[in-house]
Amino acid sequence: MNKKIAILRGINVGGKRKILMADLKALCQNLGWANVVTYIQSGNLIFDSKKQNPELEQTLEKAISYNYGFDVPVIIRNANELQTSIGRNSFFDKDADITQLHLTFLKENPTSENVEKTKTYNFEPDRFEIVEKDVFICCAGKYHQSKLTNNFFEKKLKVGATTRNWKTVLKLQELSK
């Protein structure tokens, strides 16, 4: 079995698109996923599966739509991919304030043309770096005050996205070991 991390976008935010984590865990177990663990209410799952990520993403998206009546984008990485992402974050070093760091997970690799166009935007003092299916963000203030949002990256890169703070990213890595 391969350890997988599923990151769901936009559930349990402001009382909308509510899914209890116990129910989400049961749903995934009913899909045949093994050793399912949830982490906080924002839609983070760790589980074992031999299936490929795109197939798993589609399966969970369809199951949520069928059971809850709304669409939830799902992005899945395996434990090695998450570890690689963490190692690529140039903003993360021994002196980093992890409360300023965030990772936007992209559903797929954006085109190089869209990456280059997006890099022309400057929202200093907030900074970002795009590396394959990851966008590393360093916010001088609070993330919710930044212009470097999921919507910004989805529109500019033309791919689905969801963001987690660095503390959550590190916890997901720990839980996927």
Please explain how this structure is put together.
The longest helix has 16 residues, at about 55-70. The strands form 2 sheets. The chain has a 4-stranded antiparallel β-sheet, sandwiched between helices. Helix 3 (about 80-90) runs antiparallel to helix 6. By secondary structure, it is α+β, with helices and mostly antiparallel strands. It contains 6 helices and 8 strands; from the N terminus they run E-H-E-E-H-E-H-E-H-E-E-H-E-H. The chain has helices at about 20-30, 55-70, 80-90, 110-120, 150-155, 165-175; strands spanning about 1-10, 35-40, 45-50, 75-80, 100-105, 125-130, 135-140, 160-165. Helix content is about 35%, strand content about 25%.
Distance between the termini: 13 Å
Q: What class do helices, strands and sheet pairing give?
A: alpha+beta
Overall average residue pLDDT: 93
Poorly predicted regions are: none
Q: What level of helicity do the residues show?
A: 25-40%
Could you give the topology of this structure?
Elements: E1 2-8, H1 21-30, E2 34-39, E3 44-49, H2 53-68, E4 74-78, H3 79-88, E5 101-106, H4 112-119, E6 127-131, E7 134-138, H5 150-157, E8 161-165, H6 166-175
Antiparallel strand pairs: 1-3, 1-4, 2-3, 5-7, 5-8, 6-7
